[in-house]
Amino acid sequence: MALLDTVVMRGLSSQGALSPEDKALLLGLELSPRQMSASEVLWLESADADLFCVVKEGWAYSYRNLKNGSKQILKFYLPGDIIGIRDFGFTRRLASAVMINEGVIYPFSYQQLFELFGRSNLAVGIMATAIRQQALLSERLIYLGKYAAHEQLAHFLYEIYLRLKRIGAVEDNSFLMPLTQELISDALGMSPVHVSRTFSMLREEGLVIRDRQHVQLPDPEALARLVEFNDSYIDEFLPPTFSELLRATP
Amino acid sequence: MALLDTVVMRGLSSQGALSPEDKALLLGLELSPRQMSASEVLWLESADADLFCVVKEGWAYSYRNLKNGSKQILKFYLPGDIIGIRDFGFTRRLASAVMINEGVIYPFSYQQLFELFGRSNLAVGIMATAIRQQALLSERLIYLGKYAAHEQLAHFLYEIYLRLKRIGAVEDNSFLMPLTQELISDALGMSPVHVSRTFSMLREEGLVIRDRQHVQLPDPEALARLVEFNDSYIDEFLPPTFSELLRATP
DNA sequence: CGCGCCTTTGATGTCGATCAACCTACGTGG
DNA sequence: CCACGTAGGTTGATCGACATCAAAGGCGCG
């Protein structure tokens, strides 16, 4: 359970890239769920790094505290995401991780991952997960660099929209987003007030309707055009050629 | 040759985490060098992704073109770095990659990587490389978010300094940096003029002396303090516990 | 020597930060 | 059931960091 629920593993599986033994190995991990309350801390920056977490229910985020007292959010984690991959290969956490609302997570240790690495196909899956995270980070970086606030926010919302859509959490172009404007401001590196103004701007243009946690994108395509969104880095699981290579390699 | 020259693999090797067979496998890859001229393109955004490149000599960078005509540089690659890991797991390149000055690279295909994945220890090494890149990206993201121009530039220079130092390319606190201010501006998301002004500011404070490609940091520690640099994400190769786990796992 | 690339310096404009007040929804306890 | 407190959100006024435009000063190279 749980690791197979991961976004990437589901993709691998649906492409027939996982052998029965691979699946058995994943299932054999025997992860035990842990109930988390809102704002509960998974770990703090520079704590010892020794495990990952698969998010089953709820949202979480990772962040770093800054000198000036504010913080920079690196990523929001939705159900199906793996938290902690960033720190794999380091002795200590590079960022803190905290739940946003209540939820359920499945922790699993580095040691368990090592066992999976014995099977090359799974190594590829884990690797792909890590790379995908990096892709999300790159996109954010690009938008932080030279884009105006409304473009950043639009891009951010569209990313969330796509990620929720692929786990079936979007209906009628609307979804639940348990984020305060302050959290969003910490992610986009702007002030909370400006996030508010920017939401107003997008509302007036008919692109985003938001009431507390309810968000609706009346015309997602228009939004995508505004931000020139290249969805491949979210929609794609693994390239077709990979599945072939994986089946070919013993 | 070449893959063993990689920063991470050298780290792994020095910790005794690579078995003789691992090393043999790496050496057996038989990579052939390719001479590159300045500004030569490795690949363009959305080209088919099918290989990596180990940088042997010279500098390179990856970037994305933006709507407004400018570009965002994602990363500068120095000798010992691997270019293209970001795209592994995607069918197409997420960013273009270009040489800065002339140099030598060793291309190797995805297929060759798959063969390495059969050996779990090597999978871990590759994985660690990818994660490390992500860490660099995270740091940049943090600095783009809420920091002033002089802090960003200081952070950028100190990162380059550390990376060059670990490959032995720093002498007397000074090094060669074949970057124009325009390239730096594209990386930091600010205007070229402001990069110039910011360099002046750092010079007046006695933190950075720059003449064309020659950069000297009279007091690296002062710079590190200014940016609260946490070098673990560059200095560290693999945590000691990893080496144990790797030796333990068959 | 003279052309181009890189860099520097000055003047002006603007996007978003900051400070501050107010408003709304919601939960708590009297 | 209402009074109140608190967290989140909106709106206005002011200010500053950086962008942009423009011109001029090195430095290397053909």
From TrEMBL, chains A, B:
Keywords: DNA-binding, Kinase, Transcription, Transcription regulation, Transferase. GO terms for cellular component: cytosol. Residues 147-221 form the HTH crp-type domain. Pfam families: cNMP_binding, HTH_Crp_2. Coiled coil: none annotated. Gene3D superfamilies: Jelly Rolls, Winged helix-like DNA-binding domain superfamily/Winged helix DNA-binding domain. InterPro entries: cNMP-bd_dom, cNMP-bd_dom_sf, Env_Response_Regulators, HTH_CRP, RmlC-like_jellyroll, WH-like_DNA-bd_sf, WH_DNA-bd_sf. One of its GO terms (molecular function) is DNA binding. The keyword Hydrolase does not apply. PANTHER family: CRP FAMILY TRANSCRIPTIONAL REGULATORY PROTEIN, REGULATORY PROTEIN YEIL. This is cAMP-binding domain of CRP or a regulatory subunit of cAMP-dependent protein kinases. It comes from Vreelandella arcis.
